Amino acid sequence: MKDKNMQVVVLLLFAILVTACGTAPEETQVVPTAPYSQAPGTTSSGELISDEARQRYEQGLGYRQQGQLPLAIVEFSKVIELEPEFIWAYLDRGLVYFLMGDLDLGLVDYDRAIDLDPDFAEIYFNRGLAFFYNGDFYDAIADYSRVLELNPIFIDALLNRAIAYFYIGEYENAITDTDLALALDDTLVGAYMVRGDVYDEIGEVEQAIKSYSTAAELNPQNGQIFVSRGVAYAANGEIELAKEDLEKALALGLTESTAESVQTILNDLDS
């Protein structure tokens, strides 16, 4: 079932990543669970950055928000030239490289930021995301674990580590992390989704349905939740409930590829 759930995981991780760096469409944002250890505007040694560096940094953020990623790279690079100890410039340039698909350069920036401040949890968090997208799940887990050493209540790190555990087949650890996340925030839809995916993967379909149902109660406008629950219902032989969920998912709106897959499943259930 991992392939079925990959799109959900990717969307979830992307939402968390862009939020950690301060930009994302409002409907996809995941609220950070802990304050940043360093406020933008100071270097790793606590000194204020120059006015020119600040202006260029803000311009880079603007370009990124507008999707003008090469221009954002230019601005963040100039900031780094002016203020080589300004961690946020590395963090944000690393994100832009990530968005452009150049994970290696993104990792270089995250490594440099860690050199400047090895106790800055958010850098490990973003580097963990880059590792995840590169398929380096064990490295991702190591970074999320470091985040949690620095900040045990960083919920998004718990959730992302659970997802990474899921992809390496460590299902008990994945469930443990979702339990810890939900102990901090029992309204965390993503945790119920990941838990549902784990139960689905190990064949505990009724438990998966229960988790997806809680997610649906918390976010009834999320079509992907109904896709996951609908597929679980179908696997459990509850065909009418499966069709109801899948039709609702289509009505709520899905990506084109997901909608096509859902329609194919519906056609198979009707045949």
Provide an overview of this structure.
By secondary structure, the protein is mostly helical. The protein has a domain at 186-271: Tetratricopeptide repeat domain (Serine Threonine Protein Phosphatase 5, Tetratricopeptide repeat, Alpha Horseshoe). It is 73% helix and 0% strand. It is built from 14 helices and no strands. Helix 1 packs antiparallel against helix 10 (189-201), helix 8 packs parallel to helix 10 (189-201) and helix 10 runs antiparallel to helix 11 (205-218). The longest helix is centred in the N-terminal third of the chain and has 19 residues, at 2-20. The chain starts with a helix and ends with a helix. The relative contact order is 0.09. Residues 3-39 have low confidence and may be disordered.
What's a concise summary of this model?
The protein is an all-alpha fold.
CATH architectural grouping of the domain at 186-271: Alpha Horseshoe
Distance between the termini: 23 Å
Q: How many β strands by DSSP?
A: 0
Order of helices and strands: HHHHHHHHHHHHHH
| Rg measurement, Å | 20 Å
Can you tell me the overall shape? Answer: elongated
Strand content: under 5%
Predict the CATH topology of the domain at 186-271.
Serine Threonine Protein Phosphatase 5, Tetratricopeptide repeat
List keywords for this structure.
271 residues; mainly alpha; Serine Threonine Protein Phosphatase 5, Tetratricopeptide repeat; 14 helices; 73% helix; elongated
